[in-house]
Amino acid sequence: MSVDPHVLVLAGGLSYEREVSLRSGRRVADALRASGIDVTMHDADAALLPLLQADPPDAVVIALHGATGEDGSLRGVLDLCGIPYVGCDARASRLAWDKPSAKAVLRESGIPTPDWVALPHDRFSELGAVAVLDRIVSRLDLPLMVKPAQGGSGLGGTVVRSSADLPAAMVGCFAYHATALVERYVNGMDVAVSVVDQGSGPEALPAVEIVPRDGVYDYAARYTAGLTTWHVPARLDPAVAAHVAEVAVAAHRALGLRDLSRVDLIVDEDGTPHVLEVNVSPGMTETSLLPLAVQASGLEFGKLWATLTERAAARADAAGR
């Protein structure tokens, strides 16, 4: 980066996850400032492009959650402006953001992921809701996990243990996205593995075991203190923990990701990990999983972010920005 590096942290947005994004952005900004880097926080609004033109930063940190930060569109605009950013490129972001597409790539790569069906609202109505739901239960069996095909923070997600509860779960899911992802529910340990690349290739940080008080890791459980207990590292047999780490890195590579990601998995009773989804803009709040893994690994949060922003700036310099 330049002699006096300047990093722009983008946070906020208009998604359901705006408040979480602001908290993530503030934490990253504070950590970078503690490392001696000049930081500005800004929203992704109409004033952003003029700001980038008037005072181009050395690198951008995208702390936006939801579509704005994860569907690839903002990354594409930053590419058009020649502004480097931490994280994967627009193509990989689009792929990871759409859960059915990402799961298809994982399955093709030999990475275990629960069986699923993606059902747009229009097809759900046109084909007859009752007939479609009966077929889903017959094919995937109960229990099921219903969640939006695009989205994060557990919003719109429901565990369905009875056929009678499936219609309501679908309606709740469609409130957040026009396509529902219905997948076979896997019983086991809920873990998250953060993957970071500081220059020597992607490496898995210690897995975080997630134990929500009420059994479901929904929005409230993720961001309300006291509703979830975390164990870092996860209480896994060492051989299973090593395999989980390998699978997480394989998922990161299969989706073409860069710099950092968070891979959410279920480890079943046989010790087999099943990848649920991969997040390219993971939360950075005080109850978020990547910071917990960073702390457990012995890395310094601010130093890690300084390294990631330096690498982003170096990529732009190498490309002749």
Describe this structure in words.
- The chain is of the alpha+beta class.
- It has 13 helices and 13 strands.
- The chain has helices at 18-34, 48-54, 67-70, 73-81, 90-97, 99-108, 121-126, 129-140, 166-174, 219-223, 238-254, 289-297, 301-318, and strands at residues 6-10, 38-42, 59-62, 116-120, 144-148, 158-160, 179-184, 189-196, 203-204, 208-212, 228-231, 260-267, 273-279.
- The strands form three sheets. Strands 8, 9, 10, 11, 12 and 13 form a six-stranded antiparallel β-sheet that branches. A four-stranded antiparallel β-sheet has the order 4-7-5-6.
- The longest helix is centred in the C-terminal third of the chain and has 18 residues, at 301-318.
- The chain is globular.
- It starts with 5 loop residues before the first strand and ends with a helix.
